[in-house]
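#lab-general

N.A. 3:47 PM
ok so I finally got the sequence cleaned up, no stray characters, all 286 residues accounted for. can someone with queue access submit it? mine expired

B.Y. 3:52 PM
send it over

N.A. 3:53 PM
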Amino acid sequence: MNGYRFYTATSLLLLTALFTACQKSAPAPQEESGVNAETEIIPEPNAGSEKPQLTVAISVDIAPYVMKNATTGIEVDIATQALPGYQLNFVQMPYEKLQSAVAEDRADMALGVQKFKDVEGIFYSDNFIDFVNAAITKKSANLKIEKVADLADHKVLTWQDAYLELGPEFEKLFAPDSPQRKNYVEVADQSEQVKQFWDSKDAVIVIDRSIFNAISQATEHKLSEVDYASIFPEATYFKANFEEADIRDAFNAGLKKLCSSGEYDKLLKKYNIELPGTICDSKAHP
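B.Y. 4:20 PM
back already:
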């Protein structure tokens, strides 16, 4: 009997201790706050920490200017560094659509455009990038291209609206109503343009040298198999255009800073772009 009483008393003590421990470990009731306890509470973002956002129209991928879905490339880097106070959201489109992207409210700014005429409400930057174009042929084709007129009887592969951008002689030769227009092929995607050149026996490709070199090497073609004819103006300059003049002004100021600091030249070296002159030279007029 004494043993039984001792066992019973011991069991009661253990149960009491366990009950007390459970009460201590249970969470204390919370005061009503008007929020469901199971709802995750996310702190409000600091609105002042976010940069103003701009939708930026930019070309389809054209190495080394725009690459990897407009996440890198010299045009991407120049724009990002020239406008450090803004978050740039790049939207890619063919060159012919870049020209009208801002006017048609599809972007706040567009990179790689030319100013053919004044458009009310559109603000153009200074030149921000320049291309050095050449007429390139295969050595095996044995074509003699020494001047623009020599292109007349050959298939010419080039980019959209190129006839407007390579000087008056080229424009006259390949204008829409010209007899030579039948030999003139505009290709929206310059990777495809280069592919068509390498697939052709004797076509002439008119293109920026850096673009041609980058795409050809990436597709394992040998640059030693081609000739470059420098028959066009020394450089073709491109601008950006904007919906708002103050952002255009900030962009121009950013370009000047990139030039004066030497960062612009560093970007050219980063992307292996060799130019006879750049937008930082005094001869590159706005």
